[in-house]
C-alpha cells in the first residue's frame, strides 16, 4: 500500500515537472520513512530515527501553535469560535501524526 503511494508520488512528480518538486520530495520521504518503520532492520534504523524525530518535532510545533492560539484568544485578538476552528485543525493534524507513527 505504501509502496503504491510512493510510486504514485514519483509518477505525479514527473507529470507536474519541477514546479512542486520540493513538495513531492517531502511527501515521498515521509512515505519511505513509514515503509522503513514497517520493515525494521539495521539498514532502516537511520530512516526510522529520522521519522521519529520528524513526528516529535511536528507534535512540538502543534503544541506551540495551540498555546499561541489560546494566548491570542485570552488577549482578545481572536474569539472563541476562531479558537475552536484552530484547535480542531490542530487536533486533526495531531491525530494524523500519532496514527502514522504507530
Features:
102 residues; mainly alpha; single chain
Tally of strands: 0
Low-confidence stretches: none
Biggest β-sheet description: none
> Given the structure, what is the number of helices?
4
State the share of residues found in helices, binned by percent. Answer: over 70%
Look at the helices and sheets and give the structural class.
mainly alpha
Describe this structure in words.
The chain is mainly alpha-helical and 102 residues long. The chain has four helices and no strands. It has helices at residues 2-16, 21-38, 45-74, 80-101. Helix 2 crosses helix 3. It is extended and about 45 Å long. 5% of the residues are buried. The model has no long low-confidence stretch (mean pLDDT 85).
Secondary-structure blueprint of this entry?
Layout: H1 2-16, H2 21-38, H3 45-74, H4 80-101
Helix pairs in contact: 1-2, 2-3, 3-4
Quick description:
The chain has helices at residues 2-16, 21-38, 45-74, 80-101. With 102 residues, the chain is mainly α. α1 (2-16) packs antiparallel against α2 and α2 packs across α3 (45-74).
Amino acid at each position: 500500500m505504501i509502496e503504491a503511494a510512493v510510486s504514485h508520488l514519483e509518477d505525479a512528480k514527473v507529470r507536474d515537472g519541477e514546479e512542486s518538486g520540493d513538495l513531492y520530495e517531502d511527501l515521498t520521504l515521509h512515505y519511505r520513512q513509514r515503509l522503513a518503520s514497517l520493515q525494521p532492520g539495521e539498514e532502516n534504523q537511520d530512516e526510522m530515527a529520522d521519522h521519529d524525530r520528524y513526528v516529535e518535532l511536528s507534535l512540538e510545533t502543534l503544541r506551540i501553535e495551540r498555546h499561541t492560539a489560546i494566548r491570542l484568544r485570552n488577549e482578545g485578538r481572536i474569539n472563541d469560535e476562531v479558537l475552536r476552528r484552530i484547535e480542531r485543525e490542530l487536533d486533526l493534524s495531531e491525530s494524523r501524526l500519532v496514527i502514522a507513527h504507530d
